[in-house]
Every structure is written in C-alpha cells, then in structure tokens.
Amino acid sequence: MSSPVFAAQIGTIPPAESLTTERVQALPPAQRDAWAAYVARSDAQRAADRAALAAEREGMSTWPARPEGGHSEGSMPLDKPGHWYASDAARLVIANILSFQTPAGGWGKNQPRDRPARLKGQDFVADNSNKKATPGDFDAAKDPQWSYVGTIDNDATITEIRFLAKAAPHQEPELAKACRAAAERGLRYLLAAQFPNGGWPQVWPLQGGYHDAITMNDNAVVEVAELMGWASRGEADLGFLPADLKAAAAAAHDRAVQLLLATQIRVDGRLTLWAQQHDPLTLAPSSARNYEPPALSAGESARALEFLMQLPKPTPAIVESVRAGVAVLRELPVRGRAFVKVDGARRLIDQPGAGPLWARFYDPATLTPVFGDRDKSLHDNVNDISAERRNGYSWWGTWPVKTLAAYDAWAARWLKPGN
Asked: Which pTM value belongs to this model?
C-alpha cells in the first residue's frame, strides 16, 4: 500500500533560536549588559545543579532509577477541604515535593507527587524525553538526564509552590516551616528565571532550542505573572512571605504585564494576538515542537486577555490591548463546522449548527489558520496533515468563549462610549 500524499503544504516550520552569548553580544550596547548577566546566571546555576547531583553520587557505584513519570497536577490538589492537608496523603505529597526541589529551587514536570520521596543520587526529574523524536527533531533533548530540570511547563513549579503554601498551616511547626521555606525558594527561583524584558523561558536554567523562548504555551507566562501578583499581595496562602520577596514579586508582575503589551503582535499597524512562544530577544513569534509553527494562538491569547482584564487599574495601553485582542477573536471563529473523528481520524467537517470554533494557530500576517505536522511541514488545511497529528493535538477548540463572555462587563467599566 502506498503512503498517503498530503496536499497544500504551504511551508516548512523553522527551528527556534536558542538564547546564546553570541546573540546577546549582537544586541545594542544599552541592552547587552542585562542579557549577558542573565545568560551568565543561567550558566552558573546549571553548573551548580550538575555539581550538586555529582556530589551526591560521589563514591556510589550505582544510583537509583529515575523517578516515575506521569501526570502531576492531579497529585497536588488545591481544592481540598482544610483537614485533608493534615492527612497522611497530603504529607506524602509534601515529602515528595520537598525532596525533588532542584538545587536552583524549581521543579520538573510530568511527575506524580503522591509517590515516595527522592533518594540520594536519584535524578531530579522524570524522563521527559520525546519517545517519537527522530534525528533533527526540535524536541530531542541534548542531554535527556537534564531535560526540564526546573520548568514552568504543564504548571510545574507554580503548582508545587501553591500546594506547599496551602498545606503549610495544617502541619506541625517544623514541617510547616520547611513548606514555607521551599515555597519561598521556588518563588526566588522564578524571579531568577525572569528575562530582563519581563518574560519567562519554559525551562531554567536555560536548556536551548524552543525551551528558551518566552513561553505563552499552556498559559505559562500568564500563570507565573498571576502567581507573582498573589505573592506580592500575600494572597493564595502566601501571606508568610517576607517583605522583600513581596516587593520583588510585585515588580516581576509589573514587568510581565509590560512584556505582554510588548509581545502582542501588530499586523499592518493593528494590534492582534499573541503567539504560543516569542523569541526572547526579538519578541517575534517562535516555533516549538516540529508541528508548532511561529504563529498566533487563539487559546493562549484568550487567557492573556483574561489576565489583563483582571488587573484592578488598567492603563490606557492595557485597555487598548484588551479591546483590540477581543475584536480579533470575534472575527476568527468558524461556524457550522466540527472537528470530529471520521473513520478513526479527526477531520474538520461541515455540521449545521456547530461552533463557534477557533483554530489553534493563525498565520501572523494573514490571520488565516495554519497546521503543522511531525515532518515540520506547514499546511493551510487540518485535513491535510497526518492522522497521527490530527488525533494527537487540539487543532480546533472553543478557548475564547469564556473570555468573550467576560468582556462585555469589563468593557462597560473601562471603555468610553463609542469605543
């Protein structure tokens, strides 16, 4: 049987650029020092992380197997009644979180926390290598042992901090103190990881490739900024933080807001949306995995707009950002179509009454939907990509519905009549 031929390829997805010393040296002099210091700080922390594990393993002929991987968020619930956080089940999670905090102060991803604590000499994170990666794959780790050793991907680090803060009041004094100290270290880790321009990379210390990009994907930057806002105000069980950390968190939050305003893409002078990743230096949309193009993203843009709408005193620039972003989201959905399985593979089909649906990605220049495949090919029709990618990725969705529903009340408060 011959292989299927996919039509309408419109391009090839390029790799993201790493944040390197060479790129920093090419910056204008006024920007160079801050970015050079940032890269140096990352390099030093990466070396310290590796040295810490090497010191643990000194004299050991063998060391423990890597920790178990899997979904982590559900193992750190933030919605239980207070008495649950005093239970043995909660203390098991606490012990795991405390033991797997990296020397830098962050945590890895995709690692259930309701498992045994870390053993001496054990890796800090589960195996996050892409099992489908081929030579030249954008997602192939240069060193699998050090992949995602400290990340904000998939709510990692953010959730561990919040869980520790929530659980601390229900522990004996010594354990409560340890929980708060680890949560504080986690916040200082996030402060160290923040770019000079206010964004955050997916992985810190820097890992290279798309992991160095400002990561809006999975709402990472927005959720870190939100956490910084809570920390600055002592909310979300973070009232125990020292004054200097609250002040630093407030400044980090404000820098992140300015970063969001700076990264909102203009098309022919018009403000539109955000990408899933932005290059840390140029702020242009950046690619990620083989099938994730440098394109605007409806879902991440919707969440960014929600965050901006929650700010208590929006500046005129924030108001214009929200107004413009919502206007674009209102123009993009398709109706009368559904993304459903047909003969085992999802397809976009005509279905009267269905919708609205937004594409995951839009070309930054034309605002038309685009779709990537594992071979790095770019298409203008989701039905033209492989069945494996159609089934394995959320190409169409309803992400902006909640955002648009909240907008009218926000606009009534902050927009002048006629705008």
From this structure: 0.95
